[in-house]
Amino acid sequence: MFVEVGLLGFILLLVCVWAAINVFQSQASTLAKVLWIVALLVFPVFGFLAWLFFGPRANR
Q1: Residues with Cβ within 8 Å of residue 24, at least 6 apart in sequence
Q2: Which residues lie closer than 8 Å to 35 by C-beta, 6 or more apart?
Q3: Does residue 14 lie in a domain region?
Q4: pLDDT, tens digit, for every residue of 16-57?
Q5: Beta strands in 1-60, from DSSP E residues, in sequence order
Q6: Is residue 59 situated within a structural domain?
Q7: d(CA 38, CA 3)
Q8: CA distance 4 to 6
Q9: Which of 23, 37, 46, 55 is the least buried, fewest Cβ under 10 Å from its Cβ?
Q10: Domain range enclosing 13
Q11: For residue 4, what pLDDT band results from cuts at 50, 70 and 90?
Q12: How many folded domains does the chain comprise?
């Protein structure tokens, strides 16, 4: 059971880091970037889901 919890935590960490990188690379304002990063840090699961549906995307 502890392996599954650790694996899920690691996956959550990876997706939050991926989201944070995409926020930094986006064309959003500095304030919006800071607020999204704070949301990802304070509420990792809900912050990631909110970013996934509503957040700024990096321009490619």
Answers
A1: 33, 37, 58
A2: none
A3: yes
A4: 999 999 999 999 999 999 999 999 999 988 998 998 899 887
A5: none
A6: no
A7: 28
A8: 5
A9: 46
A10: 2-54
A11: confident
A12: 1
